[in-house]
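Let us work through a complete example step by step.
Step 1: write down the sequence.
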Amino acid sequence: MKRFIFIILLCIAVSSVKAQTNGESKISFATTIGTGLSMSTPSSTPFTWQVLGYYKLTDRWSAGVGTGLSFYEKTLIPVYGSVRFQIGRERKFTPYAECATGYSFAPSDNANGGYFMNPSIGIQYPLKNKMKLQLAVGYELQELERLKKHTDSFFLKEFEEKLSHHSISFKIGLRF
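Step 2: predict the structure and record it as tokens.
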């Protein structure tokens, strides 16, 4: 099912690419920082920093890749693909919708990363030198596994704990 959806999205993206440009660059970059309101147990408030590269498919659609750092109870390095849709024409406050999905890697020895997903809606405001300020609100899902140890006077126990963090995410960043 995932392959089928990916193929459909790829066909739509390829069919909507324009062959000519009006002198405007088709490649842009963005960086964001963010946090969130945790909705899962055990609760862990995330802090994220992301760097993305976009390729402009049409006037409204962009696709790209990104990475960064996510800090939960463990540090994770997400690597993901992102699709962005600009809602309406370009104006002073331009709304957009974006969905990023991928996998996070854990640099720690006693943790494994997992599935990452972050759909969001936001608004961008133009600044000087073609830079744009972005504000976004979304939902973030981050799965990970970690090794837990518990000691008491009789036993030393180690077990693997699978976590699925759900949070309402808030991001601010620059696109250039």
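Step 3: interpret the result. DSSP finds one helix and nine strands in the chain.
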